[in-house]
Structures
1.
Amino acid sequence: MNRLHNYFAGILAQQVGLTNTYNLNIFDIMVIMALILVLTLVVYNITNFIILNGLKHYLARTKILFLNVIIKNKTFNLLAPLFSSFIFWSLLKLLKQYCANHVLIINSFYYFGLSVLLFLVLFVISKFLWSFNDYYEARFEFSEHYPIDSYVRVGVLFFWVIGLLIIVATLANTSLITIFTGIGAISAVFLLIFRDALLGIMSSIQVTASNIIRVGDWISINRLGVSGTIIDISVMTVRVKSFDNTISTVPTYSFISEVVQNYRGMIESGGRRIMRSIKIDINTIKECSDELIMNLKQFKFVDDYINDKRKLKYTNLELFRSYILGYLKSHPDINQDFVSVVHHLEPGQYGLPLQLYAFCRQTSFDKYEEVQADIFEHCFAVMPSFELKIMQYPNG
């Protein structure tokens, strides 16, 4: 920036004929300041007109996605203030260089102009970084699963911290090394004050780089009582939308320090587990009579089982179990790439639990519950045909 200033300042000084320092009174300085301000406003209006009416319209017709994103984010709108503030600062530096008196007034305006220029540079850098993030999200389909906004936030934060340190060092008329030395001396206090911010930054990078969570993932953190779909991942927090449409805000570092259950694998595999039991009244379990076997042979799955086994004796629970297993294996909404099992659990005072274990193709909550209800309603409906009853305890 100083090289650019020295180049323009040298040309301007040569044209005006400035060779020595001059003693100016306060009135002369105010007049020069007014002229500098007017010239800056003229430069701003001309530059703004060229950018808004010329450059932006020309670039918009190129149909280059990145340029269109920059225009949409109004990044070019900062170029006119940036260029005019550079002219303002350069002229003030020229005045400071050739004016021998009233140094305090000139320095005040000079450092003000420099601070404005540096702030505008930081805003332009931030705009370009966010424009790149928007371009990435619009250009690549996998951006939904691999967002980079956490990295962009860290980058913006890094540039702002460095920029503010440069501004402070400039206003204090000292070097960056001195500023960093001072920060190092109070690093313990700094870490204590910004502990959560630093944890958030590192955790955000880790969860994004390790692909632990993504926007759209269904997650549960049992200790915190959080369960729902992730709708936003930022440096400090992750927002989770629960199934009752409430939104929970969880610190990002909780996804590193806590046990997080992510259901993404279940959804991507195309199988959501069904694992529920029917409690059979043990008193209704018995060997099948010939008449009962003949009646149950009307069910295809039972008939296939009997023809395959060719046993002398069958129990009604055995045939019911074989029927339910066949029913699950033929059900269109049960994923046959996964195991399906119908088996006993340990009997107790509430009967013999007969557990159905299978994987439903429908992973969304409503469709999954509909399929599960359909399966168990069918089980309850056919139980009387097998002369089985559900274990029930009357009230009182």
2.
Amino acid sequence: MLNFALTGPRIILAAELTPMINSGGPQAVIGFSIGLGAVILLIFLGSLSSRRSAKTRISSAPAKVKKVSLKRQGEALGLSKTHIEAIENILERNPGINRNLALSNPAILDKILQAGMEEIEEQGASEPVKEKEKLILFQIKQIVERNSRTPAGIKGSRNFSPGLKLVLSTEAKVRLSTRILSVLKEGLALEIPRDSKTGAPVKLHKGMNLAVFYWKANGQGFSFPSKALGYVRTRGIDALLIKHSSTVTEATQRRFRRKALQRPCYFYPVRIVTLGTGKAQEKKAMIEGQRGTLGTVLEVSSGGCSIKTSAPLARGELIKVDFETEKKNSISAYGKVVNYSKESIGGTMHIQFTRVSQQSVNRINSFIYGL
């Protein structure tokens, strides 16, 4: 019977087995074939094991590589060290989230930030500390969204639709609000703009150069050059006709995303008064509580809001506004009227916030981003 064996680490070679095969007949040949197959199998398995071991060694420390990649991505988007560390800390506690898509996939980023918000609520820190940490997470969302945005699908003015709101900037840098009534072959027929203070129609002479702006719902702005062509009548209404443009470019982006609200508010004029004399003199903001007026917040962002009312304040006036984003989610903010659009009854004030608490900012952001 064939005695095929491994002696220590030495394998018996085929050449050494030749005498055994010759003396053993057919059974020896079969035995030799089986043994040789076993040796080949052992060599193959050993090679496969070595490859797997090498792969394991190569990928044994991927976290550091990915961490550097996330840091570089964050810095390229404008995130600070504090923002990047906040993301890293959340990812370390939530290993199931795909960190490779943390800053490139909005849904993944929202998942990370939502996990962070839940952790903040569960911790035993004071409310001011919690609000500060929430604000950092909302800042991450705003910075990434703003700096990741790319213009897409920008088309010429012939592709616009009636009803689109526009802002015209004249050669004298006067800004006028209007909207498209009709898209005609020769140009855009616009609602005749009106003076924001008097409500009187503003006449633009033929040939006047204009810069035209409009914004999408997410705050992405666009502009194009045009000029006044005169006046036409469309759909039974007198309208301003401006020239079409095939060059529509992304305008300066809004800093914060806005969202429609359509909720009631109360606003109050604010006066700056001087108290005391000499070196003891100081200025204070005085809220005229007796002049509280009802309005409707049309849209809101963490940087401001627009309010429709029958008794608007003038451009440049200071204001305090109280409203809710949701039931029992009250907001109080101080601001300034930066623009005003007059309508048939009252008008719409555009407010820039000048002072608002972290809690109110976080409540606004929670409403806007759903976090």
3.
Amino acid sequence: MISKENFICLAEDWGAHPTSTQHLLKQFMDKNAVLWVNSISMRSPALQTGDLKRLLRKLQSFCSQPQDQFQPNLKVISPLALPFYQVPAVRRMNRIFLRKQLKSRKPEKPILWVSLPTAVDLVGEMDEKLSVYYCGDEFSEMPGVDPVMIRKMEAELLRKADLVLCSSESLVSSKRRMNSETYLIPHGVDFSHFQPESGGGINHELRSIKTPIVGFFGHIAPWVDVELIAFLAQNRPQYSFVLIGQVFTDTAVLHGLSNVFMLGQKPYAALPEYVTAFDAAMIPFRVNELTRNVNPLKLLEYFAAGKPVVSTPTDEVERFAGLLRISRDRDDFLRQLDDIIGFYPKEMVAAARRRSKSESWEQRAEQISCILEKKLKDKIK
């Protein structure tokens, strides 16, 4: 594993439900120092409650500077930046402002890790020895962003970055056209975290819910097909559908369905107490350009927990064909659910658990470490 390096990571806010970037950087923290720079937003705020609350949190976090020490080898800061990237003058001002905020905190000759296209203007400004773009989504397809602006910023980032790491084959295929140093790093999993013994049994919120339970955890966002979930719930009133996660989309179609339970966001540490109660897990994603490129983190987590899975078809899910059920339409989704609930597929679940155990975050970080070390040696030459 790479060691004695300093990382600056420009990504989402630390401490939220852990993303792949957080899982990966944690693997480096034993032997390297990480300065985590909380999210430089990808979209301009609207006068909505959620956006206003986030702006307030940003201001509170900024006022708590200097940097917070969260754990050994990790420091987190929350800089201020104006999220109006369409205006060239604002981008220039942000670059100067952010550089000044980071100047006294940045380590000497860091490895710069960028997980958001909107951080492109800091590449080359940190006196970094190496710049890495970690691409975990097709960001221009994310809800609420300006797709033209994000594509333009990402294209610039792809030209600037020394290395590009992508979480799916589809992303590798599209990004490699602009940067030949593009590598596939699929998501990993914290296998031990999702073992039944790692939790405290079934969470009390689920004990009164009728079984069988079909479960989902993750953001309930526009890419989640809530109409599909409503269809499933209406046609299988004997099943309970449990949704765990923060809501970012209209879920009115689910309201009034007595067998749908929306339990809200739960801490990552508590997820094993919920997933252990699932009789089946589901990935009911819409099929579009965003989900075509996504590698769903929850899939390996469901596998690690020993749960049979039904998913809509996406490119990365298809990579695991034979380890889960993949539906072709909503009626097929219903049939697949009936099948795995009625006849628990022991062999399929066992094989999926073995597969997830072989795809740990530690192994992914080792892959990245080899790529980083080789590139650093090449740059010295």
